[in-house]
Batch of 2 targets.
Target 1
Amino acid sequence: MGGQKFQYDESGGTFFYFLISFLALLLVPGTYYYWPRSTVEDPEKERKLCQCAGCKRKRKIMESSEPWKGAKNFMKKLLIVLGWVFLIFLTYKVSQFDYEMANFDPYDILKVSSGASQAEIKKAYRKLSLILHPDKETGNEKAFMKLNKAYQALTDDEARKNWEKYGNPDGPGVINFGIALPSWIVEKENSVWVLGLYALVFMIALPTVVGMWWYRSIRYSGDQVLLDTQQLYYYFFHKTPVMPLKRALMILAASLEYDKKHNSEIVERPSDNVELPQLIRNIENLNEKTRERPLSDAYSLKARALLFAHMGRMLLPENSLEIDRQYIVKKCPYLIQEMVNCVSQLIMLAYARRINMLPKIETIENVMKLSPMIVQGLWDNKSPLRQLPHIQEENLKWFSSKKRHIKNLQQLAQLPAEDRRALLKSIPDENYSDIMKVLGNMPYIDFQVRCEVIDDEEPTVYTAGAIVTVTVILERKSMAVLFGDESAPDKTAYETKEDEEETEKKEDAAQVKKPPAWLKQKKGKKSSKKGSKKLAASAVKPTTAAAAAPAPAAATPNTTSSNKKSLDKVEEEKKAELSADPEDSELSDDEAEQSEDSDDEPANKKKTSNVDDDDKEWEKFQDKLAKREKVLEGRSKTSHSVHCPLYPDDKQEYWWVYISDRKSHTLLTAPYHVTALVDTEEIQLKFTAPRWPGVYTFTVCLRSDSYLGFDQLHDIKLDVKEAPEEITDHPQWDFPEGEEEKEGEGSDLSEFTTDEDVEDDAE
């Protein structure tokens, strides 16, 4: 009968297996993630970078921010190499152990033949024991133990039979289980030390580490902003619904991340008592005498003064206030994003609870303005041309000539190359090259908007209370596409709202004056009914003010009624022409055949329409799956690097997209933070249509968090119709009186119930 044997590892063989598995689990992923990767330096990389003094200083700051980077990489490599050497050594030990156990042959060890007698076996054992005994000079303890084991296996008749038959002296059914721990762990003499080690690891070290992690994590939000700072934002934004820009800057400077009591990384220097008052005296409108806490605290006043000096591009002492400025500015984009989230949450909460006192759209837009101001180190009332290298305040007069009045970067990029160089003729060629590098890498966004009601029979018809989906398509190009393009339109994509209204009025006037296309046809020209229908359908499509929008907004009632009247007149004129001129109304042979086969067309059209509908549904389903996979993958934080010499770290281009009602100064959707706009990005924003019918104008806003003067506005017009009344006279909904009463019990619908919900309840 077989048996089982449990025993601790005396020789340490099975313990090696445990160590090998444990080390492999650590070394394989650790080597992949932590091995320092040597980046291949591009020889042209230095040539592509901006060589202005600010960018050179920034690169030195980024290199000096990690002084121990080389030593850390060396230690990582050393630890990983030592781990792999130890793993290879353990693997060799295990392979030797397995080799010895697999090659245990008692006949070979005693050096006798397989049919040797007992006398020959004993004689061979005595001869080898005199040589291998540990007390002898030529002794070998390990070989002597194997010799004893081989002698016992061949002198015992039962063990010899088991060996010859099963290859194992212990028989066929014996299974040995080795515990991968040495036996000294359970020995009585070592019990105190073992228990002490367990207590140290599981009762002291592990709870301490978990407690420190938990205490730190509960103090921060998901974006690693202090929860106390978040509460501070909620308080001030609720207190001041319409917040000016400078007050938003004061609240940003009052963030508790800049207070040493809440952040141990803050450094307080004795030199601040001398240098900080001098800096405050040189800054105007700092409002340092405010008594409102914590805006009047010392840490808040210092952070506010450094932010004012940063945006005023003032020189600071390098070893004191300049270091503090870099630390404060580096944290600002994360804090501003948290401020935007707090304002949008307050607005949405006020909508849900019908609170009148809610932050206005000006508040959240002023908060958004802070980000490009701090990244570029420039006030919002300054010229956006100052974002270019080598352009100082005294150089702005070059752009205000009588012939050309350049106000923004897009107008400068659209100039022909000769005119641009002539405009900047006083700048050396090297500096001009830096200007063109930076200008060419700046973003040029194609901003397209499409409105629809998804999962509806008529997606372009907006009824009261319907969920409107606004699809925003952003296509990012470099500003270099505008260089020297004389055929490019004078109106850029970054036009003001007044310009959009003017162009919209001009296009509407031109559309009214322009006669329909089919009225230009001569009487003698033959045309089929299909062609006239296509032309009529194409003429009815409304147009929008922005040429970039792929799907136009809904037309107003006046325009739709006028289009219908014009169509009726055209159809009447067409019928009159056909009845008056029989020669012109004659159809060609092909058209006659088509008219004969007109009876078969409805069936074919139904089939093709069903196939097209299935294809569209399948495409929508595939798009939904792709969007879900993209959400599961997580949002990337890499887009394009921003030229910002005064920002002490690498900054990526991010954007905010949201919908607002400029008339009521309200926010309709929470701002969507676009963090991965490399080439194209598609965003869907949803809001509820107004309850009352009418024509409404909303604005889709695109704002940059890195550049000044790159914001865009796109108006959308919604012709909101009345919601269809509930259908009650349908024959399939005629229930008996008892069932009708049962259906009516407790079926009160809310004011936000959609028509689909009503139909589902009725069915």
Target 2
Amino acid sequence: MATFHYSGSTFYYNDQPVTIISGAIHYFRVVPEYWRDRLLKLKACGLNTVETYVPWNLHEPQKGEFCFEGIADIVRFIELAGELGLYVIVRPSPYICAEWEFGGLPYWLLSDSDMRLRCYHRPFLDHVDAYYDVLLPKLKPLLCTEGGPIIALQIENEYGSYGNDKRYLNHLKESMISRGMDVLLFTSDGPEDAMLQGGMVPGVLATVNFGSRTKEAFDKLLEYQPDAPVMCMEYWNGWFDHWGEEHHTRSAEDAAHVLDEILSLNGSVNFYMFHGGTNFGFYNGANAHSLDAYEPTITSYDYDSPLNESGEPREKYFAVREVISKYVNLGPCELPSPIPKKAYGKLQMKEQASLKANLDRISAPIASAYPETMEKLGQAYGFIHYSTYISGPRPKDELVIQDVHDRAQVYLNGQLAATLDRINPDVKLEFEVPNEGLHVSILVENLGRINYGPFMKEYKGITEGVRFGRQFLSDWTMHPLPLTDLTGLIFEELSEQTEPCFFRTTLVVDDPCDTFLSLEGWTKGVVFINGFNLGRYWNIGPQKTLYVPGPLLKQGNNEIMIFELHGTSDASVTFLERPNIG
């Protein structure tokens, strides 16, 4: 049994003063087979603590249905960290941001159109408390007060950037305390007056998040909390990427310099990120700095961190270790053996299945007078297909989707007429309706729910309706497409692609190794490896390859399936030994 606490400007583990040098590794962004490798590399760099968020939507994907297995086995991740001699900081607040879908909140909250998020709204709090009734008893035996490695828990995340509801924050604090969470509780916010005023809670340690201007940040924290240690809970030593922009990097020298500033001021630190990992499946988030500025995050969460997406140390790793060695006696850098990488070469697609021909095989149709959102249909992620008929004749007018979240491919009598999306809102679709009328079908993709800021409460799919001119169109048939069960697909021989299609082939592997899937020539879609949703690809970049961890492959035959939305110049893919991003 142990205690982690502070007195004055110093943290103590029992009666020993300690400086926390931590790094973020999200268990849910790394396949479980590699948790030990990443934690060993963190420790070899000189860090004494690992930090992780806990995404509510991963652990309670549907209301009352919980998952703590496989990549969601948080208990095993924490136990493993403890076995390796690391402290653990856990951030299980309902909201995590993290560039993760909906900031970790479960989509089903929005099935209640009256739901209020991140405030003292009784229905929201009831859901949080029901989740904590399941989650927190799993963490209780892992607390340092119970002999485990967890030294601290976060009650909310950067709340001062969102609101100032102290009743809500105190409810979260008491929810943890009443369930036996008797370790240090903390908040983390930006080092600004409004953020600290909105996010701090009496009796809870405040920490700050920043990437530079260390003294200024710590001085601001000390204005509000003069008799406590200073800690940067998120030291942004790199950054994340959105689709369609340049890959973000930060020099090793600059990142190491700011770390040196933090430690020289007797600060504790948590690298965000130390190892970023991957937004597998449809779990990437999105940002929106205004209603007209929607930016979805890419599949890779490399973050330009000390360990890259596939867990290899980059120059920044060794620069960080050198700085830490000025403050901590470090022995030789004992890294685990490198994980083998392999280029399996070029692979031709063998079969093809059109979405249109298979709609009823992979989704049950739902009829409605108006288009419904994913949330109202009980769908978390993926795509949704809407179809209706416009009678004719009608003169030329504009088809308006009011509003599309996030990207819609519009087909008229089976022919692609336009792609309408939030990223390029200036695109318009106008047409005449002939005497015999027109069949209209719309495939909408959820590109990721917003994970930060004031526009988080948004719905996916068609959120209001579809108009031809001023007239709303009725009599819709909807097919939810979460792509979680594709066993009903019937494949045929390859043919010219004129609509969204699934492609399939087999990769034969003798020795399963890490590899990188190049989709050069493809446009936009999703890749599945042996049924595992690897994530999205998009030719607008910056990401050009998808990381395939070796444990997703097996000796012998491996099924490779691609859902391509537009078309490819070459129905083949290439497995490379190294990634391509930029």
